[in-house]
Amino acid sequence: MQIEKYKIEEHNQSGIKDHQRRLDFISSEIESSERVIKMLVDFQVAIPSWALGTGGTRFGRFSGGGEPRSLEEKIEDIGLIHALNQSSGAISLHIPWDIPENASHIKALASQNGLKFDAMNSNTFQDQPGQEWSYKFGSMQHVNKSVRKQAVDHNIEVIKYGIELGSESLTVWLSDGSCFPGQLNFRNAFQHTLESLQEVYAALPEQWKMFVEYKAFEPNFYSMTVGDWGQSLLYANKLGHKAYTLVDLGHHLPNANIEQIVALLLMEGKLGGFHFNDSKYGDDDLTVGSIRPYQLFLIFNELVEGMDAKGMNHTTDLGWMIDASHNIKDPLEDLLQSVEAILISYAQALSVDRKKLAEAQNNNDVVMAQEILQNAFRHDLRPLVAEARMRAGGALNPVELFRNQNVREYLVKDRGAKTVSTGL
Ligand code: LRH
Ligand code: MN
After folding, report:
1. pLDDT tens track for 323-382
2. For labelling, which of 65, 172, 178, 180 has a CA lying 20 to 30 Å from the CA of 204?
3. Does this model's pTM top 0.70?
4. Can you tell me which atom of ligand 1 is nearest the CA of 325?
5. Which atom of ligand 1 is nearest to the CA of 424?
6. What residues contact residue 392 under an 8 Å CB cut-off, 6+ apart?
7. Of the bound ligands, which one is closest to the alpha carbon of residue 325?
């Protein structure tokens, strides 16, 4: 389903007076509003191809209907999100859930929808029909060389699909690990995994990046072979300059200080990108900013400070991707809310008075340092995000327009109430 440009303009016209009033107020409050708006316009977040349907848990899955039945329909849905917010101009594919049977056709359809291909994702955490070797006891860590080779070959195949689509990065998340003490020799598992990743690394085209995604637990519940940022950094350092760590916000042990991890990985030049989501307990894959918006702001505060310290380009030098699963919300509304939360936190981080903060830090003025940070966090910068969206041709209020246009009703009528899309 397409949303015509005039529908978006009509929607913006009906909300322009209130928007302008709010924009004028916040622009009078913070002096950098124009700079922030310009940087928001350029900031793009990749949408995961595996999160356009209804997710579920082992206890149940409650389909919302109208889910995409093919990669083509997934690209249309992401195209619709991008038409509404002009901040979702990339799709991150998961193989084999979304194999581009006809890559040139898929590439053309994506560019018609203003989309490019971000990181490709491999999958050695499920056994595919007819697969020779099972990944029950792991993939790249496996004691059996044939299983490791199967996993390496799969990742090289994923790179091939990515090259055809114009992607320039591969995310490797390994579910490998153990569920019981004694099950695994940790050193052998690490060495096997490193050797396997080195074979995949050797197949990367010159300008490509490899993102090594870590996770503290699930589906293994005693050890994970890429279990935390330290292990991921160990692999990335041993692999070479094309290898980086990937931070999925839901992959940490309770109360981990993620913003400090981000600051150090950035300092080391080994932070590759993010899987944004939110969580209260485990890898809950909830809407970004829905549980801990202050943590998200603190992460972007370290990102802006650290990237500027290294002269990095905010838009292109890191992988900005969402990784979420929608158990009860409409997947498209959930993704619209997630992108909004990311842009709000980025805007708040851009509005931090860095000079004053550095002064407070150098004077051990703890109170003032907190005042400066929370002042930025407590500013309602949604009018800046809306203004950036409108200037880029998007809607002032994407979720409102999505609903006014009865998009889900239309998709259910067009695709059916029981369609199931591939993915989580
Ligand atoms: C693992 C993970 C990984 C994906 C999968 C869909 O929890 O975050 O990034 O491959 O979710
Ligand atoms: Mn992830």
Report:
1. 999 999 999 999 999 999 999 999 999 999 999 999 999 999 999 999 999 999 999 999
2. 178
3. yes
4. 6
5. 6
6. 41, 86, 87
7. 1
